[in-house]
Design brief:
- The complex is a heterodimer of chains A (249) and B (313).
- With 249 residues, chain A is an alpha/beta fold.
- Chain A has one domain: HUPs (Rossmann fold, 3-Layer(aba) Sandwich).
- Chain A has six helices and 13 strands.
- In chain A, the strands form two sheets. In chain A, strands 9-8-7-10-6-1-4-5-11 form a nine-stranded mixed β-sheet, sandwiched between helices.
- In chain A, helix 2 packs across helix 5 and helix 3 packs across helix 4.
- Chain A is globular.
- By secondary structure, chain B is of the alpha/beta class.
- Chain B has two domains: 165 residues, HUPs (Rossmann fold, 3-Layer(aba) Sandwich); 122 residues, TPP-binding domain (Rossmann fold, 3-Layer(aba) Sandwich), CATH 3.40.50.
- In chain B, the strands form three sheets. Chain B has a seven-stranded parallel β-sheet, sandwiched between helices.
- Classes of the chains: A alpha/beta (249), B alpha/beta (313).
- Chain B: Keywords: Electron transport, FAD, Flavoprotein, Transport.
- Chain B: One of its GO terms (biological process) is fatty acid beta-oxidation using acyl-CoA dehydrogenase.
- Chain B: GO terms for molecular function: electron transfer activity; flavin adenine dinucleotide binding.
- Chain B: Heterodimer of an alpha and a beta subunit.
């Protein structure tokens, strides 16, 4: 079974985000970039499926600038077999990303597509579901467990009230939540080997997709800062303040 | 303009989040219809018809929608939504699941998790885990939008008298089926809409110690939440997680116990009216957002809090 994993290059999880003074966006100059954490979980899940003998080949795809090759190489070092880079310097929004991935799905015909549930930059939580709709596949979103059985996959999903399990016909789309697995680190020998793994490069035009954005960002601002309040000496003072000053109990 | 709001419910009762989404629809302006899709959900339709500002309630009552599978809801809402200028749903796990399918089927972009309405095509939403706030404008003919419920004051649940219309549109995509559900059982209020929330973090050390928080919660009529660290450590289940990737809460009072205040957690609770932090590390970032900070060992402070509350409540 072939598994396709989509990964995104984003600002590193640990970097403090700063809004540009002219309010046009977030300052990404000279900022450390990395694979989106939910995408790391997607790669790990695919690698585990291969280790269990369920997946036979893992293809990793990323859409983005030339530098996104770094994230594809990271995925290859973690165990993916080959990469596809859809190279563009344009901002690609969720619907257009889903259309590009649909074109890749049509070429590769994977049985399972695994994506992160959202990227930590735009926080949209859309691409996997849109891809599933465009390709006519079922979707197991916010997955905390993925079990392939014959021509079906059972996905346990993290939902507001707890957990919900659905059964999907294959091929299907799965999007990962935090507790699906704990991603491994790439070993140095695997990082060296990854450099020799095949990586195809193509453009959105090669895939016949117009990536012009539908949403325009008018401005980006820093959130309203909350002022630190006071320290109280003990629990009695705390309860007194809550009752008589804040009047919330 | 005409706006379609997709009701959030469990087939027996209408969730309050729907009233928050209707409020967002009112801010956009125009006729507001509510779609109730479910199975044996007549009571929900009746409740939706009483909500303030609702023009018409459309009901799609069929087994295909009973478990709110995204594949089936996506097709239904795309079909019904074609006739509207805006389609809105709450940004809970159900809305997040099916709404992008609706957008893709209509070939339009989706605007996720809006916090404010600037005009009928311009909306404010958080990005980078709430570390930046973007104002975005949609050029699509149909605006597909998920709404952060806590950012809008709910419309009144009573007083409206909308007409109720049955739809006989059955969309079963045949791609997915429901297997099982493990839902948390609790007599406490729903975390996302509770007036008071008390949350525990890694400092709680284990799941059993959350009992201390539950005792305080029961005195206050509060919901109990947790930080990602506490959920990842296996102390408590995922549905208790407050934060950017968990639940977004904005209660009157938020009490953070043994929570350091990672930015992802702050993104989920910093709109609370009053924040209390109890932590033994006085350098913990949670104190930078807390109205009242208590530097103390939680294992002494929380039982004391319970005793003090018993005196005054």
């Amino acid at each position: 079974m072939k598994v396709l994993v989509a990964v995104k290059r984003v600002i590193d999880y640990n970097v403090k985000v700063r809004v540009k003074p002219d309010n046009t966006g977030v300052d990404l100059a000279n900022v450390k970039m990395a694979m989106n954490p939910f995408c790391e979980i997607a790669v790990e899940e695919a690698v585990r499926l291969k280790e269990k003998g369920v997946a036979s080949e893992i293809v990793v795809v990323s859409i983005g600038p030339k530098a996104a090759q770094e994230q594809i190489r990271t995925a290859l070092a973690l165990g993916a077999d080959r990469g596809i880079h859809v190279e563009t310097d344009e901002e690609v929004q969720s619907l257009e990303a889903a259309k590009l991935l649909k074109a890749v799905v049509e070429k590769e015909e994977p049985k399972l597509v695994i994506l992160g549930k959202q990227s930590i930059d735009s926080d949209n939580n859309q691409t996997g579901q849109m891809l599933a709709a465009l390709t006519g596949m079922g979707q197991g979103t916010f997955a905390s467990e993925v079990v392939v059985e014959g021509d079906k996959v059972n996905v346990t999903r993290e939902v507001d009230g707890g957990l919900m399990t659905v059964s999907l016909n294959l091929p299907a789309v799965v999007t990962t939540d935090l507790r699906l697995n704990e991603p491994r680190y790439a070993s140095l020998p695997n990082i060296m080997k990854a450099k020799k793994k095949p990586l195809d490069n193509m453009s959105p035009a090669d895939l016949g997709v117009d990536v012009a954005p539908r949403l325009s960002t008018l401005k980006v601002e820093a959130p309203a800062a909350r002022q630190a309040g006071v320290k109280v000496a003990d629990v009695a003072e705390l309860v007194d303040k809550l009752k008589n000053e804040a009047k919330v109990i | 303009m005409s706006i379609l709001v997709i009701a959030e419910h469990d087939n027996s009762s209408l969730k309050q989040a729907t009233l928050n989404v209707v409020a967002a629809a009112k801010a956009i302006g125009g006729d507001i219809d509510v779609l109730v899709a479910g199975e044996n959900c007549g009571a929900v339709a009746e409740a939706a018809a009483k909500a303030e500002g609702v023009n018409k309630v459309l009901v799609a009552d069929n087994a295909a929608y009973g478990h709110f599978l995204g594949e089936n809801l996506g097709e239904l809402v795309a079909e019904v939504g074609k006739g509207y200028s805006h389609v809105l749903a709450a940004a809970g796990t159900t809305g997040k699941d099916f709404m992008p399918r609706v957008a893709a089927l209509l070939d339009v972009a989706q605007v996720s998790d809006i916090m404010r309405v600037e005009s009928d095509d311009t909306f404010v939403r958080p990005i980078y885990a709430g570390n930046a706030i973007a104002t975005v404008k949609s050029s699509d003919s149909i605006k597909v939008i998920t709404v952060r419920p806590t950012a809008f004051d709910p419309v009144a649940a009573e007083g409206g008298s909308a007409s109720v219309e049955q739809l006989d549109v059955v969309k079963d995509a045949g791609l997915s089926s429901f297997v099982k559900e493990e839902l948390a059982q609790s007599d406490r209020p729903d975390l996302a809409s509770a007036g008071i929330v008390i949350s525990g973090g890694r400092g709680m050390q284990n799941g059993e110690n959350f009992k201390m928080l539950e005792n305080v919660a029961d005195l206050l009529g509060a919901a109990v939440g947790a930080s990602r660290a506490a959920v990842d450590a296996g102390f408590v289940p995922n549905d208790m997680q407050v934060g950017q990737t968990g639940k977004i809460v904005a209660p009157q009072l938020y009490i953070a116990v043994g929570i350091s205040g990672a930015i992802q957690h702050l993104a989920g609770m910093s709109d609370s009216k009053v924040i209390v932090a109890i932590n033994k590390d006085e350098e913990a970032p949670i104190f930078q957002v807390a109205d009242y900070g208590l530097v103390a060992d939680l294992f002494e402070a929380v039982p004391q809090l319970e005793e003090e509350l018993k005196k005054v409540l």
